[in-house]
Design a protein that fits this description.
heterodimer; A: about 110 residues; mainly beta; 6-stranded mixed beta sheet; 11 strands; about 0% helix; about 55% strand; B: about 110 residues; 4-stranded antiparallel beta sheet; about 50% strand
């Protein structure tokens, strides 16, 4: 079992729709969770961080965390073609450790 | 967030040679991280560079192949030694990510070994 799992996609959604990206992780002691967006040929760019159960909203983006289910998701409302990218989920165990574990990413395609 | 400058942005190298990648940060940071992203893959941590001590390497990565320097709190280098085509990847410098903080990345170095 991979430590951080994501569906590789591509996930195709029409412009204006909600894109839902999912991530599961295996280590129950993980404490911090991050979503990065990576355009082709570019480096990852931080979109959201979330540390406690529930929802966290930032503009069109909402991160959802459920530690009991070891599940974190990213919702993108009013999806735009410019949102087309690979979205990486990253998990940090915290507790004085620093290592990020990245998922393989989900490729999102927003269709105009 | 820190501003991270990484160079070169890309290079094409002959097998058997070495390439040194530089990473400069606009503020002092405790830890700097080096990642590799192979084509179509996610990020894999190569090593963590702390100022004043030897780098800590992840499983599968060794100092002879990927020597790292960290001469001060704003700068680090990663050398890819005795390169083979299998080393063709994007190499990324990162700061932050320690003690639950957010990690930020340099622009990356796209390396092609021929």
């Amino acid at each position: 079992q991979k430590e951080v799992e994501q569906n590789s996609g591509p996930l195709s959604v029409p412009e204006g729709a909600i894109a839902s990206l999912n991530c599961t992780y295996s280590d129950r002691v993980s404490q911090s969770f991050f979503w990065y967006r990576q355009y082709s040929g570019k480096s990852p760019e931080l979109i959201m961080s979330i540390y406690s159960n529930g929802d966290k909203e930032d503009g069109r983006f909402t991160a959802q965390l459920n530690k009991a289910s070891q599940y974190v998701s990213l919702l993108i409302r009013d999806s735009q073609p410019s949102d087309s990218a690979t979205y990486l989920c990253a998990v940090n165990r915290g507790s004085g450790t620093y290592k990020y574990i990245f998922g393989t990413g989900t490729r999102l395609k927003v269709l105009a | 967030s820190a501003v991270i400058s990484q160079k070169p942005s890309r290079d094409i190298c002959q097998r058997g040679t070495s390439l040194t990648i530089q990473c400069q940060v606009d503020s002092q940071v405790t830890m700097m991280f080096w990642y590799r992203q192979q084509p179509g893959q996610s990020l894999t941590l190569i090593a963590t560079a702390n100022q004043g001590s030897e780098a800590t390497y992840e499983s599968g990565f060794v100092i002879d192949k990927f020597p790292i320097s960290r001469p001060n709190l704003t700068f680090s280098t990663l050398t890819v030694s005795n390169m083979s085509p299998e080393d063709s990847s994007i190499y990324l410098c990162s700061v932050g990510g320690d003690f639950n903080t957010e990690a930020f990345f340099g622009q990356g170095t796209r390396l092609t070994v021929v």
